[in-house]
Design goal:
Shape: globular
Strand order of the largest sheet: 1-3-2-4-5-6
Structural class: alpha/beta
CATH topology of the largest domain: Rossmann fold
Radius of gyration: 17 Å
Strand content: 5-15%
Number of domains: 2
Helix content: 40-55%
CATH class of the largest domain: Alpha Beta
Number of helices: 10
Low-confidence stretches: 1-26, 215-222
Number of strands: 6
Length: about 220
């Protein structure tokens, strides 16, 4: 996915100044949303949709991963909308890195293409709470945002899909796939299978690579 230049002074875009009543609503919104997407129009569209809802507020958005940790620390969102096709280290890898932190937000993966079965399996392995195509209607997007933020939602991977995904993996990784798609945490996986943290991170990266495109992945392992 190519980086699209945006008419902004900085890659960090916090929510614009609000009138006092709007600021109060943003501070007390039940669902505090942050977003990472390299396209300024997508970020603007998300702001329009999210800020139109009384129970939601877009507390910040960024165009680049290098600004994401600072945004999460400053804005403390309950939900992150994450562009799956982000240049460099892609959305799945970013999500995997964040989900391995104790203080991670819930994450909705925002995809520029329809979710294929293998992409769905990869999102489940990475621990994403939902996956939604950018072609989704306003209603579908809002339903997904509320569902992910309020309940979290382990992405369901049917048995037939699990078998299909397993066929793409090294047999040594089948148990990791099964445990992650069943909802086991990374520490649980490592403890049960006696895999050291660093080795488990490398195998997680390999699983995501195998379940997504056959093209070389850029970036480094999370």
């Amino acid at each position: 996915m190519s980086t699209v230049a945006s008419p902004r002074a900085s890659s960090l875009v916090l929510a614009p100044p609000r009138r006092p009543q709007e600021a109060q609503a943003g501070a007390t919104a039940a669902i505090r949303v942050a977003a990472l997407d390299d396209h300024w129009a997508v970020r603007a569209g998300l702001e329009t949709v999210i800020d139109s809802q009384p129970d939601m507020a877009l507390v910040g958005s960024v165009a680049g991963e290098d600004e994401l940790d600072r945004l999460l620390e400053r804005a403390d969102p309950s939900l992150l909308v994450l562009d799956i096709g982000h240049p460099g280290l892609d959305g799945l890898a970013i999500g995997l890195r964040l989900k391995r932190r104790a203080d991670h937000p819930r994450i909705l993966l925002y995809s520029g293409r329809e979710a294929t079965p293998l992409l769905t399996a990869a999102a489940a392995v990475a621990g994403m709470d939902a996956i939604v195509p950018k072609s989704a209607s306003r209603r579908e997007l809002l339903e997904a945002l509320r569902g992910a933020a309020r309940h979290g939602s382990r992405i369901d991977v049917p048995l037939a899909l699990l078998r299909h995904a397993a066929g793409r993996l090294d047999p040594a990784d089948h148990a990791i796939l099964a445990m992650r798609t069943a909802g086991s945490s990374w520490p649980e996986v490592g403890s049960t299978l006696a895999i050291a943290e660093v080795a488990l991170a490398r195998r997680a990266w390999a699983i995501l690579a195998a379940l997504t495109t056959s093209e070389p992945r850029s970036g480094t392992a999370p």
